[in-house]
Amino acid sequence: MERAELPSPLQASRLAPVRSLLRAMIVPIMSVIVALAIGAVIISLSGANPLVAYSALFEGGLGSGRAIGRTLEKATPLIFGGLAVSLAFKCGLFNIGAQGQLLLGAIFAAFIGFSLQGLPAVVHIPLALLVGAIMGALWAAIAGTLKALTGAHEVITTIMLNFVAFNLTDWLSDGPWKDRSPGNIVARTPAVAPEARLPDIAGVPLGMILAVLAAIAVWWLIWRTTIGFELRTVGQNASAARYAGISVRRMTVLAMVASGFLAGLGGAVETLGVVGRFQPGFNVGLGFQAITIALLARTNPIAVIPASLLIGVMQAGASRMQFNSGVASEIIDVIQAIILFFVAADSIIRWILRLRAEEGERVTLSSGWGS
Amino acid sequence: MKRSVSLIILLLVSALIAACGGPQAGGVTPTAAPPTGATPAPAKPTEADCPKPEVLCVGLVTDVGEIDDKSFNQSAWEGVKRAEAELGAIVNYVETKDAKDYDANIALFTEKGYDVIVTVGFALGEATAKAAAENPNVKFIGVDQFQATTIPNVAGLIFAEDKAGFLAGVLAAGMSKSNKIAAVLGTNLVPPVVAFKEGYENGAKYLKPDIQVIATYHPGGLDTAFTDPKWGADQAKLAIDQGADVIFGAGGKTGNGALIETAANADKGVYCIGVDTDQWETVPEARPCLISSAMKLITPGVFDLIKKAQEGNFPSGNYVGEVGLAPFHDFDAKIPAELKAKIAEVDKGLRDGTISTGYKP
Amino acid sequence: MQITDTLARPSVARLPWVTIGVWGGLAILVLVAYARAPQATTAVLTSTIRQSTPIILGALAGIMCERSGVINIGIEGMMLIAAFLGFMFNVWTGDLLLATMGALLVGAAVGAFHALMSITLKVDQIIAGTVINILAVGLTGYFYQQGLTTRGKLTPVSIPVLADIPIIGPVFFSNPPITYASLVLIVVIHVLLFRTVWGLRTRAVGEHPAAADTVGIAVNRVRYINVIIGGMLAGLAGGFLTLESVGSFERNMTNGRGFVSLAVMIFGKWTPFGAWGGSLLFGFANALQSQIQFLKNQLPPWLAWIGDLPPQFIGMLPYVLTIAVLAGFVGRARPPAAIGKVYEKE
Fold it and tell me: Does residue A217 lie within any of the structural domains?
């Protein structure tokens, strides 16, 4: 467990875990500080007070129990999505389709949630979550199978499947699964049964607990199982994997299915935990933020959690920032991009702080491009 | 080497910023001053005084999108600003970025003691009803929110879009020489858009039963359907190329794209009709072709309801706002007198119920 | 220069049957449709070109980058920034030509930023592209103000004589300037990549940088220049959106077209003409889905069911068609071998 908390480049150095944890954290922390500083410059250039803006941002994200609750709410789907994208990257696949897989998971969880009535929560919740996750997995399996059988590039198919997923879920929520209760004119499904809503456990939303468990599970899968080893081997060098007798096709499909499962689960958690039904427009952008999260975490499943929390704080606080200071919330996109830039271009921060480069695994996400 | 690299980055960032000339964030600056550090002058109340009964505070929560969207968010905000000017209200707004924030964004106002909260868009209906139950002393104005059951402190400001569309259809059919007119629309997932379209089609056929009406809904999801001006422009061109000579653009920025494209083809004798507000003002690029707009008068509707709330006779349930055609502006002389008379006659018929738009929600 | 033999050049010998069959079939279909409804057919084909223009420009941007070994998933962001600043230049100067030049320059600047990250700072290239995408959404959204208007947009210029040919005339010879430019650029980039020394060097750098280095090619310099050229092409695509297609800017107006470009680039196996085929397919499917809605009430009885489909299903057409053609006919695409890898001298 303790080891699981550490980012993977540090697994080698077990002698001074605290020191190396600090060393690993220094670049991300500095990146956030530098990004906030640049953001402050932009805010003051536009005639607002960055201190007012930032204090409102953090008040809205961390200032009260309710604010922290909203941060967790924002971070939960990001963790699932970030894990989905990270897992695919480990196998050399770029899953741009987390958005579509998430939508499918969200709407099928809603379907199970509203169509079945009177089930006890212990049955209803797992069932709805599982169906959502499986639908996400099946949606991703289309891309995985096409790649394995015909070589169709997953970047194309997942981008296209995202668009199809939007259309399909829009139609389902305006057609066969539309909420027909009197007075509703809006495209949305009926509300899920109360028994299917995710409860809080000791004050923490169940979805967040599941997300953390999923992160640990993915870490375990990648680093402690044979499948994980094969997955990483394919990701690093497909032809070497083939020589070693690993079925690249099988791993491709498997990685996409697992990735889609996580994204679908994220969508299901979102439906059952936060929205309470499926409604078009409520899950937009999560899949693309998931890519940012995966990159910010350098595809490390455990690092996905702090990355999601960081972005979650900003998203939760954005409205209050705009309300209190008039600073448009697009500024948080700018800050995110700059954080990502400095985390990736770590040589700049190291040069500023005169730090030596960290030994360890260098992350190349692009190794699988096109193969 | 590395020093120069970071210099380049700094330059790039500052160039990007400088290139934009340091404009204000988000276009419209909220009028309410941030409460921090400001000592309220006794004469002028600030947001901090909102809990006091004599101070009227009005907040607005947008649907996903910006306050300056040239469409319903902006129209509603203008109604709120009119309350600021005429009723001395303290006003502020929150832009919704994520549909899951509706509740939290409404709460930003309720916890500050705002008296009236305007929520814009049908999608906020559920969050509005919930907040109204939790805050029985706060009045809520729900723009485009049909009230199936009456909640005492909620007024749903709704419009008969089909009637506005019907009038636009009569105008379009009357102005068409090719006997083919078109509509470029946002998504069919949004009921007002469907109402505009059905009304338009039936209005055109009311005047000329044999007219051909071609219409297309944006095929994308709710997230892109109203913010895709390129698609709107492409469809307007496609319709003009096959002989349509009046284009009705109804779908936020997507529709605006169709209007501007039609304006670029104005030399071919094509006309366009805008939607929601008088787009002569909001989309000046469309003036070469814009003969009118199918309006729903959100601004006066919002203002009237705020005023009623202040006066203490806030209506619950559904409050039907005005619809109609915008002025013809520069095209006034080009519209035949008999067509104007016909439009006035249809308008009267729609009002007294002798003419039906044929739209069933 | 022996490495040239291994470089992917579109093989002419292998092209024929499937391709000819598909295009021949399409041509016959077009003629049949034209005989039945000339005006509508021409309109759909014109719309096809128009809708494919930003896609092919974005794909060409990707090709220039990736042929030299640099992944570019930031096309979307490059387009958006250039669309925004191109629009702003138009607001400030009121001169469409200057604004187009401005969009090109902005594209070049963002391209240079991508090169800086990917080559000099050795940032993972997928991260670099993502940084550009997010930064573009944030900066343009933050700084855009409503109420800015411009005087007009680029309008079609008919080429005398040629524009009067049925079908071909209106479709190809009556277009606005950036559309013409995109058609010319497809040929130019094809020649540049496959018929010039520069192209040879570019492909060498993208396939086998170490070997290119040993014969004296400055690997990173070639990459820098190609990525900047790619940025300019993406900038032109952005300029197309605000200066030629729409005439004004809206937040996030690219709406995923940069990602579609990326898909089309891979679809065309990193060749300009292949990508053009992909973008035409996409543009056509888009035009067709509107046309189906337009003709909703006039379809022959045996096709009436199509008119009754919800718009969401008709809207899937471009995407499903792309997947089907990709899986059915195009198959595995091999990217440049050295793509995504930072080149460091041994």
Answer: yes
Question: Given a contact as 3+ CB pairs under 8 Å, which chains touch C?
Answer: A, B
Beta-bridge partners for B90: B57
Contacts with B5 from chain A: Cβ below 8 Å: 348
Question: Residue C174 pairs with which residues in a beta bridge?
Answer: C158
Q: What is the 3-state secondary structure (H, E, C) of B53-118?
A: CCCCEEEEEEEECCCCCCCHHHHHHHHHHHHHHHHCCEEEEEEECCHHHHHHHHHHHHCCCCCEEE
Closest to C226 (Cα-Cα) out of C338, C111, C120, C54:
C111
Burial zone of A23 (CB within 10 Å; 0-12 exposed, 13-18 middle, 19+ buried): middle
Chunked in runs of 10, what are the mean pLDDT values of chain A (371 residues)?
41 56 81 95 92 94 92 96 96 94 97 94 97 98 94 90 94 93 86 95 92 97 94 90 92 97 97 94 88 92 95 94 91 94 87 70 57 45
Chain B closest CA to A315's CA: distance in Å?
9
Q: How far apart are CA A366 and CA A369, in angstroms?
A: 5
- Mark yes or no for CB contact C246/B12 under 8 Å: no
**A307: Cα within 13 Å, side-chain hemisphere:** 32
DSSP H helical segments within chain B, as ranges? 2-19, 72-87, 102-110, 125-134, 161-175, 191-207, 229-241, 252-264, 279-282, 298-311, 337-352
Question: Does residue A113 fall inside a structural domain?
Answer: yes
B140, HSE (Cβ side, Cα atoms, 13 Å): 34
Number of domains in chain A: 1
Q: Name the residue among C50, C81, C253 with its Cβ closest to that of B229.
A: C253
Q: Which of residues 5-34 of B touch A (CB under 8 A)?
A: 5-6, 9, 13, 17, 22-26, 29-30, 34
Is A143 a member of any domain?
yes
Token reading at A187: 């495209």
* Alpha carbon distance A346, B31 (integer Å): 42
B271-276 and B180-185 beta bridge pairing: unpaired
Residue B211: pLDDT band by 50, 70, 90 thresholds? very high
Tokens of A72: 């967790």
Q: Which of B48-57, B323-332, C254-263 is least confident?
A: B48-57
Gyration radius from chain B CA atoms: 22
pLDDT in tens, B220-268: 877 788 889 999 999 999 999 999 999 999 988 999 999 999 999 999 9
The domains of chain B, with CATH numbers, are: 49-159+297-322 (3.40.50.2300), 161-296+328-352 (3.40.50.2300)
Q: Dihedral through CA C192, CA C197, CA C199, CA C203, nearest 10?
A: 170
- The verdict on C329 touching A (C-beta cutoff 8 Å) is no
Give the whole-angstrom CA distance, residue B356 versus residue C235: 51
Phi, psi of C309 (to 5 degrees): -65, 145
What ipTM did this prediction achieve? Answer: 0.89
List the 24-43 stretch of B: residues with Cβ below 8 A of C: 24-27
Q: How many CB pairs under 8 A join A and B?
A: 120
- What's the pTM value of the predicted model, to 2 decimals? 0.89
| Alpha carbon distance B92, B29 (integer Å) | 9
Lookup result for tokens 């006890």 = A120
Q: Is residue C216 a contact partner of residue C210, using CB atoms and an 8 Å limit?
A: no
By DSSP bridging, strand B290-296 and strand B154-158 are unpaired
Domain that residue A172 falls in: 77-311
CB B164 within 8 A of CB B350: no
Q: Is residue A13 part of a domain?
A: no
C-alpha distances in Å from residue C237, one per residue of C100, C103, C189: 10, 9, 15
**Cα gap A96→A73, rounded to integer Å:** 23
